[in-house]
Amino acid sequence: EYGASQALLSLARQLGLHRILYSRAESWVECALAMIVGRIIYQGSKLGLCNQWANTSLWELCGVQGRPDVEQHCYEVLDRLLERQGAIQKKLASKHLAHGCLVFYDITSTYLEGEYEGSELREFYGLAKIVFAGDRGLVTAARLKEMEGIEGLNTISALTHREIVALLERKLVEPELFDERQVVEVIDPDDPRQRYCLCRNPLTAERESKTR
Question: Which SS3 state, helix, strand or coil, does residue 61 take?
Answer without folding.
Answer: helix
